[in-house]
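I'll show a sample.
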Amino acid sequence: MIILDLIVSVLALSCNSYGRVLEYGTPESVGLLSWPFVQLEKNISAYLIPANYSSATCNEIHPIISRSGRDGTIVSHFAVREVVKYANDNDSEFENVKKISAKLDTIYDMASVAVASMVVNIFQEENSVSQLLTHTAGFDADPAPPLWTEYTSYSARRQAIIKQDFTGPLGMTDTFFNRGNLALDTSRIAATDFQIAVQGTSEPQRPQPVWGTVHDENAWSLDGVSGHAGVFSTSMNLGIFCQMILNNGKYGNVRILESQSHGLGFELNQYYFSGPMQSLQTVGHTGFTGTSMVIDRPSNTFMVLLTNRVHPRRTWSSPNIAREMVGYWVKKAMGLGE
């Protein structure tokens, strides 16, 4: 695995969609072919049939929400199957009236995909560690108003800062932490696994399946707010995040990140999540729950794929073959590939 420690050179490249806000359009409007996206949906939907597709895929991949965009234009988006399907970890299904179908606005536990957004938020600060250590950051000795605000907890402070400086300005209204592990309205949220049945009684004692609270046990123990997990979001909100990166840190009239800032938190040049779109300028991140996003700088393209890998249990099939398939058909849409 190659972790991208510095993408200064990538962010500094020219980009025609600087500040562009996402809108819907046809593939042809941004120089793409339409038929590969039709085939993408057919192929992805086929993975809903249980089969041994690869060494890591022994069951169906479900559910699937896919969203792809280029030059600030969403050219493909679809949702298939159920985000709530199983009544227990033994694959017994709920009766149909209790199942919940995937929708384009379904909210997912993003798992490690949270890392990318956390790091972007951190690098909004203009002062470096070296400046702080050498007392050259430019802070007054006794500033007014003060540089700090009293919060009830560390997690409350982190959540407030992210909403104020990141998700709020971007209009990512469906992106949030469930601070306090509260019982939320789960009608739009994808369920995850039956942790206690699968992992044992040492797991957090909470309603099963895990649904609306963070799947990651460590993040749950930290009040639901952590730097490595805990973020809930939708495919559209992730698309906004990706477009902001393609815009060199700006979305509309809002600047979130300076173009010369570091890009910690992304992986670089990985086939398992980008397929044939893999390159040294293709970055992305995946989440344990089956989520992923890919940003391809050369083609000004992003790909978001949300699956529910851990429902009903975390030993379910890997969605990597579906992630690679998205990259395959997006490249086909560009008139490239075999």
Notes: The chain is about 25% helix and 15% strand. Confidence is low (pLDDT under 50) at residues 1-17.
